[in-house]
Amino acid sequence: MPYISTVNVNGVRAAAGKGLLAWLAVTEADVVCVQETRATDAQVRAALAPALDAGWQLSHAEPESKGRAGVGILSRRAPSAVRIGFGSSEFAAAGRYLEADFDDVTVASVYVHSGDAGTVRQDEKYRFMAELGAYLTARTGDFVVAGDWNIAHTERDLKNWKGNLKSAGFLPQERAWIDELLAAGYVDVVRSLNPGVDGPYSWWSYRGRAFDNDSGWRIDAVYTREGIASRAVSARVERAATYAERWSDHAPVTVEFAEKVPEPLTSEYPLHGHGRGVRAFSALRISSRAASPVTD
């Protein structure tokens, strides 16, 4: 079954040396959306050279601002098309949005601003959200958008929600924006597969004992259109066993999708299970396998 992962690497060059390359060598993921590479295309390719030599394909949107943002998509096979940005003139070169087509499935990697309540940085975040929201609402078909959203949607999505009611990442306007995405037909598949629980958190501050106490935020998420959401069968946060084993302040979030089931030829053979359609999502796979809120 195909797997899609997302992780904010908090600087790809640092992460590669601390464990990202080792994780890529063993992950089940067919597609990995990465955020905050903080590097040029050439620097990302150099940092990930062992993984690329092992067969991973890289698509990357480098940031115009040095040391900030940058998003990428690593895949087991080359996509049929890649697009940087979502039509915004202000954010076209920001390195915050990238999407790639794999036959009838489009996968996007997004990095929303962290923001800062009551400042121009928060105003910029809201402008980005408004344009991104309009674009996502217009999308149809089998569409998956994964990344660091820098928004905890509900009280279950961060440990200390009472202390963050006026903090960027948990502001009413940000949370309402997620409500609008859900109302427009998107599904938070990690939450839908983990209902009624706190977390699972995906980002923990490096300060204090946040990681050891699991005092985190669930800001890394996978959203899909409703059709493909019905084929999401499992979701997990790949939390490091110990603080010392972390290679980012975020942990990878991985979702498993079932293949599409062929449509029945007659009404005598109703569909049971996940999804409808003819082509299989397994087109994302190839046969062989290679042997946190953050500052912007």
Automatic annotation (TrEMBL):
- Top EC group: hydrolase
Q: Where do the Endonuclease/exonuclease/phosphatase domain residues begin and end? A: 6-250
InterPro entries attached to this UniProt entry: AP_endonuc_1, Endo/exonu/phosph_ase_sf, Endo/exonuclease/phosphatase, ExoIII-like
Reply yes or no: does the keyword Magnesium apply.
Answer: yes
- Pfam families found in the cross-reference section: Exo_endo_phos
Its EC number is: 3.1.11.2
Question: Which terms does the record give in the GO molecular function aspect?
Answer: double-stranded DNA 3'-5' DNA exonuclease activity
Instruction: Answer yes or no on keyword Hydrolase.
Output: yes
Name the needed cofactors: Mg(2+)
Q: Per UniProt, which keywords does this protein have?
A: Hydrolase, Magnesium, Metal-binding
Q: Tell me the protein's name.
A: Exodeoxyribonuclease III
